[in-house]
Amino acid sequence: MENSSPGKDISLEDIQSKFPLSAKKNNSHFSNFTISGVEFGHGKCPVFAGPNMVESEELIKNVALHVKKSGASFLRGGAFKPLTFPYRSEKYWESREDGIEWLAKAKDYAKIPVITEIMEERFISLIAEVADILQIGARNMQNYPLLTACAKTGKPIMIKRGFGCSLRDWLGAAEYVLLEGNQKVILCERGIVAPHTHRSTSRFLLDLQVVPAAQEVTHLPIVTDPSHACFWRPWVPSLAKASVAIGANGLMLEVHPDPSNAAVDPLQAIDFSEFEILMNQLKCIGKICEIEVGN
Ligand code: PEP
Ligand code: MN
Prior knowledge:
By secondary structure, this protein is an alpha/beta fold. It has helices spanning 12-18, 57-69, 96-110, 124-130, 144-152, 167-178, 210-217, 226-230, 236-246, 272-289, and strands spanning 33-35, 38-40, 44-45, 47-50, 74-76, 114-117, 133-136, 157-160, 185-189, 222-224, 251-254, 292-293. Helix 2 (57-69) packs parallel to helix 3. 45% of the residues are buried. The protein binds phosphoenolpyruvate and manganese (II) ion. The site of manganese (II) ion has 4 residues, from loops.
């Protein structure tokens, strides 16, 4: 740990005054908490799985059943989506309020807790009624009024790392939530910008190195999302296995019954059988590393 504060990396002064609540108090300090019956913390790796977007009631119920059967701890799926372009069409849309209703039905039908993204304060009560965890997307990691408003609901919050943000920035965002007295905060690494990502369709690079780096300074669980990082289905299983091996405290994976026809991000989701095989492999890696994977 450096004593000076270079701005990008973390200094001792940062730990004492910038993020006293997210910083570890000693080497063995790790947050352990339960969300809807699922344990988070050291030695645990809950799995969040589901489609990029909640496309229909039928689809989300089907995915909920399948991922639960293969060992997922949470169903993921976006209804309010941070789509890069403002135009909407039959091929490029969001399910919004309908999607939240379908998620609620799938949760009840498959008896699995859910995580979904929240982008605007005005939808907090609608989403908080259904979601077990509120997801702050990468693009909103530094939307501090949104973080504070979500924190005040008392709901668990997962903060995705902005793709250009440092660990220091990320812990600053977590501190906004912790400052409201909300202790159930999860960090999610979802890929960062890098000069080389090895395929023209791969927009980001999964920063595996941030897992041990974060665990060195914070007690909060660190989840990875290989799907959003690499954008490429064939690479997702390898990056997921590497995430468990490196000690990630959770995994988010995009799973769709027919990936190439997914409404959003069709290149990155894996299908049901790939997910089932992967979960079995992840559990084997977890056993060697003394990490409990999935539900
Ligand atoms: C998502 O999880 O659906 C999502 C949009 O992720 P990110 O904020 O990491 O891009
Ligand atoms: Mn996405």
